[in-house]
Amino acid sequence: FLLINPISKTEDVPSPAQYLITMEYDKESDDDLDIWIQSPSGKIVYYGSRGNGFINLERDDLGRTSDCITTKNGVSKCIRINREVITLRGTEEGEYKVQMRVYSQKLNSPTGNPVHFEVLGVNPYEVLWTRDLEYEQTNQRISVVRFTVEDGDVVSFSELDFSFDLRRSTPSGG
Question: pTM of the prediction?
Answer without folding.
Answer: 0.82
